[in-house]
Structures are given as C-alpha cells and as structure tokens.
Design a protein that fits this description.
Chain A: It holds the Pfam family BPD_transp_2. Chain A: It is a multi-pass membrane protein. Chain A: This is ABC transporter permease. The complex is a heterodimer of chains A (about 375) and B (about 270). In chain A, about 70% of the residues lie in helices and about 5% in strands. Chain A has about 375 residues and is mainly α. In chain A, the strands form three sheets. Chain A has a two-stranded antiparallel ribbon. Chain A has a two-stranded antiparallel sheet with strand order 2-3. In chain A, a hairpin with a 2-residue loop joins strand 2 (about 210) and strand 3. In chain A, helix 5 (about 90-115) packs antiparallel against helix 15 (about 330-345), helix 6 crosses helix 7 and helix 14 runs parallel beside helix 17 (about 355-370). Chain A starts with a helix and ends in a 19-residue tail after the last helix. The relative contact order of chain A is 0.15. Chain B has about 270 residues and is of the alpha/beta class. Chain B has a single domain (about 35-265), classed as P-loop containing nucleotide triphosphate hydrolases (Rossmann fold). Chain B has helices at about 55-60, 85-90, 105-110, 120-125, 130-150, 150-155, 165-180, 195-215, 225-230, 250-255, 255-265, and strands at about 15-25, 25-40, 40-45, 70-75, 75, 90-95, 185-190, 220, 235-240, 245-250. Chain B has a six-stranded mixed sheet, sandwiched between helices. A four-stranded antiparallel sheet of chain B has the order 2-1-4-5, covered by helices on one side. In chain B, strand 1 (about 15-25) and strand 2 (about 25-40) form a beta hairpin. In chain B, helix 3 (about 105-110) runs parallel beside helix 7 (about 165-180) and helix 5 (about 130-150) packs across helix 7. The chains are: A mainly alpha (about 375), B alpha/beta (about 270). The interface of A and B includes residues 267 and 270 of A.
Chain lengths: ~375, ~270
C-alpha cells in the first residue's frame, strides 16, 4: 500500500526512539559494576517507563510497532549486535546476552503452547535440558555435525515431549499443567540417578565447531582480540530471529486463529470443524522443539550440563517470563527475558532471593496488569494492511 | 405477518431424524423424536424450558451422541459423526449463550466458521505468504460482504475486537460465523436472548434478507418470542418432555389444545 514517506517516517520514529533508548540503557546497565549505581539506574528505568506511560508516550510506541514491525525488528537486531560489539571482549556480559537470547527462544516456544493453544507447560526447563543433554552426548560420542546436533536437540525435545501428549490431551486446563509438573520432577530425578548421563555431576559439552571453525577459540581480527562468546552470540541471534519469524507467521495465519479458537472455546471451535487434537499436538511439539533447540545451543555455550540446571524452579522462571511479558506477545517475551535474566545477575544483593522476587513479581503482574507488560494486540495478519 | 405455506412436499429433505432418543441419567431429554426439514424451509422449534430443544441441537451437531435413533443429512447418515464431520457435511449453528471469542476481532470470529474453506497446511500458512495473502484478502472481502448485509457500519469495523460490541452486533457476527461456510442447514438457538424487542425484529429482517441470497438454505430456529416464530417460520414443531406434541403452521399449533396447556400456560 502507498504509505507516503513522510507518514511512514512519523509512525516509525517513536518505535525507533524506544529501541535506541532501551539499548543505550542496557549498555550502561551492563557496564556499571557499582551496586548502588545499578540500583539507581534500575530505579531510573522504572521511573522513566512509568512517567512515559503517564505522559501518554507509550501509545505512539505501540502504534509504531504495530504498523512498522518489520523495520523495527531489523533495528532491534542491529541494536542487539551493537550491544555485542560494545562488549566484544567481555566474556561475562556476552555469556549473559547469549543466555537472554536463548531464553527468549525458549519462552517463544512456551508462548506457542500457552499463549496460543492454552496448553500450560510447567516443564519448559526439562525440555531445555533435553536439548542440552543431547548436545553433551552427541558431541562427546559421535561426529554428528554440530548444526545437525541443534536440529536433533529440538527433535529430541519434541519426541520425549510426545510422551506427555496423551495425558495432556485427555486432561484440560489445570490438570494438564499438573501432568507437566510431574514430568519436570521426574526428569530431574531421572538425570540424577542415571550414571550413563553423568548422575548429579552431569556431563561436559564440547564447544561448537562448524566447518572447522571452532566456536571456543577467541577471534583475532587485525590485532583486536574478540571473545569467543561472540561466535555463540551470532549463532543465538540467528536462531532467535528464525524463531521470532516462525512465531509471528504462525500467529498471523489460519493456524494462529485455530489455536486461539481452541484456547478460548474448545466446544465452539469443534462445532466449526476444528480438529482439536491435531492443533494441540502441533502447538505442543512445535513449542517443545523451539525450547529444545535453544537448550542444545545453551548447553554448548556453557560447556557443561547437570540436573540442577533444569529443575522445576527453572521451569517456573520461564513461565514467569511469559506472564510478565504479556502472554502471546513475542516482543513482550523478549523484554521480560531481558529483565528476568539480567537484573538478578547484575544486582548481587538479590541473587539469593531470586525465586522469591520472581514469585512476588508474578503476583504483582497478575494483580495489577494481568495481561503483562506488553499486552498482545488484536491480530493483524499483515501489519499496515487496510481493507 | 405473511405465512409462507412451504412447498415442502416437492422439496427434498435436508435433515431427517427418526426415533431420536437421548437420556441424562433417568431423564429422557429426547424421546423417540422424528424431525424433518425440507430444503429452503424455516422450521420453528418451540417448547417450555427443559423440553429438549437445545439437546436436539447438540445431538444433531454431534456434541452429544443419540442413545437411539438415526439422523441423516441429505440422505447421508450422520448419527455418530463428530462435530467436525457434521460441520463439514454442511450444518452450522449459533449458541443460546453467545459463544464468540471475545478478544478476537470480528473478522477472526467469522473466519473460525470458515474453517473448511481455508487452507490449513503448515507449509502454506508459514512459508507461502504470498499465496496466504491472496486467500486472506479474498476471505476478508467475503466476510465483509456478508456483514454488510446485516449492518454496513459494522462491516467497516472488521478488525476491532468483539469484546466491545453490543449484543445485537454479537448476534449478527455469530450468524455470519455460521453462514460464511455456506451451510445447507443453520440451527439458531434463541437468537433473541438478551436483546430488546426492536433489536430482535431488526435481526429477523436481516436473517430473511440473507436467506434470499443464500439459495436453498434451511433454518431451524429455537425461540421463545412467538412474534418471531409467527413471522419467519413456515412450520413449527412443539416439544414437551422430549416428545413432539404438535406440528404444523404457527396458526395450527397456536390453536392446538395440548400446546396451549403445555406451553402457553392455559388451563
């Protein structure tokens, strides 16, 4: 359609400004070490968002995201790469950024399951772990190319997840959630007693190598030494972009509509020909494979896997990201992952009270903003399209 | 108003139910019910609360299975078919308690009813976006044209959520959702519920208007408002305790003594 350059620029500007401001804020937050300065920064950030909301500055931002999503998506990718470039020698920060990016992929998977199909999965971390353990076993014992390992990790998560299909399809709502909780608890116990998989100590994971390019070696370009985590950062970014596109297209298609219809009213959806079993299975498997792929790469990034990394509590963190961000809104998921992963990592005072704070956060969200920080807007099949 | 004496003897039957029985525990919700609908006919289904009208709809659409008896649509047996199969065979319905998906847009709600005419393939939906866009634009135009028959201003708000709309608009959208797939048989469960007298009358005008354009559509309507039944039906069936106690034109059943006792409350 013919959006004049002028009008297009106007609707792009608020979104672009928001992306740039958030990026600058993040870079400063990641750079600062002094705890008091971090607390001051966080307070400033929260205050700025509340003030912007009061002044009505967030509406144009939301508008520009709904009209010009493709352009702003590109800008967000550039901004994330800018963060990577600023911290090109900083192992710790790059590892943190990789974790944020891969957690985003995992919660995008959860949001297909819960946000669209309404299947609440409390075993997200288990499927993440299945991917990581797949990486450990395959990289130690086989010569399977590592890109293929990523795919196999996703497939394994989907395959083992299909054990849950029957109980999940037979039960509804909370009962299906209880089934996934049981799975999460069993999974961790299974890993702990299983010596082949390293028991409680876990396993080493070899670093990624693609066509002879070893991801675990630092990079040297023209005398500048770059952290090896930059390799993983680029790889994670490719995966998150792909996952984002898949989730977006899924939502903006008849399949997304099917999933919404069966979540909101299964009986009515059935009366209009919807095959409920088929679409619940599709959503569950697709979500789990995204979580699995993210877990596989994360296993390679951190270099070891152990049962304690994939507990029920970690699954709850994933679910709390979803609730905080806005159920079914991928942008909300990305923002919430940044908050939930980075804040406790930077603010060491709250490290120990992490789970307590997550719980408090979830309760506050449910009480005061049940649709999350960025509520999901009404579906637009093609942004900017008008009849 | 005008009673259209139905040309039902010549027209083929769309729906044919024989000896339909459904029990809930000790209660006989449907008791050996015979029920026919001819092509192009509007049949009123009336009876006191709990007489089995909604159960009849639920059995026809496959939500409940019949304990005994047969249903066929266009001569094909659908007695034990799933709701999905019955929809694909050409039966659509509206619900007594409006069952729209409130957070979704008007367009989305109507498209839920269009399921069988939309390409549901993963590859088509995720990868072939140009082809998807063509199907989307065509569906949008169709849905908008259908809503336009009911209410032109509403047709300009297709991308707004249903949640903010008044009851009459919700009913209109529910009927559009049922009609978009061009069914042979439309089952309407108390379309006047929750609406004023004027709104109901307006909605009935719309339904008659739409029916003119959908050739051969048959309708079964459950309704408590006798004005509606008198005005739009060709024929009525009266239920009480799951049994058919009378059938005929509205004038005939209104004069029937048993009907007056059971339903109109006369001594």
């Amino acid at each position: 359609m013919a959006i004049s350059g002028n009008d297009g620029g106007r609707s792009l500007l608020p979104g672009a400004a928001a992306v740039v401001l958030v990026t600058v804020f993040l870079i400063i937050l990641l750079r600062v070490e002094n705890q008091k300065a971090i607390i001051a920064l966080l307070a400033l950030g929260i205050g700025a968002v509340i003030a912007a909301n009061r002044l009505g500055l967030l509406k144009p931002v939301a508008h520009s995201f709904s009209e010009r999503e493709d352009a702003l998506g590109l800008l967000a990718i550039v901004a994330t790469f800018a963060v990577g470039a600023v911290f090109h020698e900083d192992h710790f920060v790059l590892l943190l950024v990789c974790t944020v990016v891969l957690y985003t992929v995992a919660t995008l998977g959860l949001s297909i399951q819960f946000g669209y199909a309404g299947v609440l999965n409390f075993a997200g971390a288990s499927f993440f772990g299945i991917g990581a353990y797949t990486a450990a076993v395959l990289s130690q014992h086989t010569a399977v190319p590592h890109l293929l390992v990523l795919l196999i990790g996703g497939l394994m998560a989907a395959l083992i997840g299909s054990l849950l299909l029957l109980p999940v399809l037979r039960t509804r709502g909370h009962y299906a959630a209880v089934v996934t909780i049981a799975f999460a608890l069993l999974f961790k116990t299974f890993l702990e007693v299983n010596d082949v998989l390293g028991g409680p100590q876990g396993l080493q994971v070899r670093g990624m190598t693609i066509l002879g390019w070893s991801f675990n070696d630092n990079i040297e370009i023209g005398g500048v030494e770059l952290s090896f985590y930059l390799n993983y950062f680029v790889m994670s970014m490719m995966i998150v972009v792909l996952a984002f596109v898949v989730v977006r297209r899924l939502e903006r298609s008849w399949i997304g509509l099917n999933l919404d219809a069966l979540r909101l009213d299964e009986t009515a959806a059935g009366c209009f020909g919807l095959n409920i079993v088929r679409w619940k299975i599709t959503a569950f498997l697709l979500g789990n494979s995204l979580i699995g792929v993210a877990g596989t790469l994360h296993g390679m990034v951190v270099g070891f896997v152990q049962p304690n990394n994939y507990t029920f509590a970690d699954s709850l963190v994933l679910v709390s990201i979803l609730l905080l961000g806005g159920i079914g809104n991928p942008w909300g998921v990305a923002v919430a992952t940044v908050i939930v992963v980075i804040v406790p990592e930077k603010l060491q005072v709250i490290q120990e009270y992490r789970f307590f704070l997550y719980a408090a956060l979830v309760m506050m969200v449910l009480l005061f903003r049940p649709e999350g920080l960025l509520p999901r807007p009404v579906r637009r099949y093609f942004p900017g399209w008008r009849p | 108003m005008t009673q259209n004496p139905a040309p039902r003897e010549e027209m083929p039957l769309v729906l044919e139910a024989r000896g339909l029985t459904r029990r809930f525990g000790g209660v006989l919700a449907l008791d050996h019910l015979d029920f026919d609908v001819a092509r192009g006919e509007i049949v009123g289904l009336i009876g006191p609360n709990g007489s089995g009208k909604t159960t009849f709809f639920n059995v026809i659409t496959g939500i409940y299975w019949a304990d005994a008896g047969h249903v066929s649509l266009d001569g094909a047996e659908i007695t034990r078919a799933t709701p999905q199969a019955i929809y694909h065979a050409g039966v659509s319905r509206t619900f007594q308690r409006s069952r729209l998906s409130l957070p979704l847009s008007i367009f989305d709600n109507i498209m839920i009813g269009n399921h069988k005419r939309l390409n549901q393939g993963l590859w088509f939906n995720l990868v072939r976006r140009q082809a998807f866009k063509a199907e989307f634009e065509e569906s949008f135009a169709n849905a908008q044209a259908l809503v336009e028959v009911f209410d032109p201003p509403l047709a300009r708000r297709m991308l707004e959520p249903v949640a903010g709309l008044p009851m009459i608009d919700r009913r209109r959208i529910e009927i559009c959702r049922a009609l978009i797939s061009r069914p042979q048989l439309l089952l309407m469960d108390e379309p006047s519920a929750g609406m004023t007298h004027e709104e109901t009358s307006q909605l009935m005008d719309d339904i008659l208007e739409v029916r003119k354009r959908l050739d051969g559509l048959s309708i079964v309507i459950v309704e408590h408002e006798m004005g509606v039944i008198e005005r739009i039906t060709n024929r009525c069936v009266v239920l009480n305790f799951g049994r058919k106690i009378a059938a005929g034109t509205f004038a005939e059943i209104a004069a029937d003594r048993m009907v007056q006792e059971a339903y109109l409350g006369l001594q």
